[in-house]
Design brief:
Strand content: under 5%
Radius of gyration: 18 Å
Number of strands: 2
CATH class: Mainly Alpha
CATH architecture: Up-down Bundle
Distance between the termini: 24 Å
CATH topology: de novo design (two linked rop proteins)
């Protein structure tokens, strides 16, 4: 399972890195699809930075940390960090939907990654011990 978390972390880092590229891009955004989907507009908005740090950098650091914690199997800490990341991502989704009224495909992808990460971490924390016990019981029966 830890490799799944590592893979999700890499995917999150890639999406956040693409959003960071948009943050610093000066020419037209290649993901300007229409008036509803425009990564450039989202990543150049006042909401794209927090205390002067691009939100995408926070995402890169967060996914890196989640990947390390997942590889270490620190499942409780992964859950806490993933819930915090999901809450922040949901806030940013609210900004896109209700304030900017434009969406960034990288941000929506990142929301999917952090949601899946959170659900997997929740499952491991709720059922991980039971799965290990069931596996040990099954092994002893053989």
């Amino acid at each position: 399972m830890r490799y799944v978390f590592g893979l999700l972390a890499v995917l999150g880092i890639v999406l956040s890195s693409l959003a960071l590229r948009e943050h610093y891009r000066t020419e037209d955004s290649p993901c300007h699809i229409n008036d509803v989907w425009d990564c450039g507009e989202v990543n150049h908005s006042p909401y794209a930075s927090l205390f002067g740090v691009p939100v995408a950098v926070i995402g890169i650091a967060g996914y890196f940390g989640l990947g390390i914690l997942g590889m270490m199997r620190a499942w409780r800490v992964v859950l806490v960090a993933a819930v915090a990341g999901l809450a922040f991502s949901l806030y940013l989704t609210h900004v896109e939907k209700d304030i900017l009224r434009v969406w960034c495909i990288y941000c929506v992808g990142s929301l999917g990654v952090i949601t899946l990460t959170t659900l997997l971490a929740l499952g491991i924390n709720l059922f991980g011990g039971r799965l290990k016990a069931a596996s040990a019981t099954a092994d002893s029966v053989r």
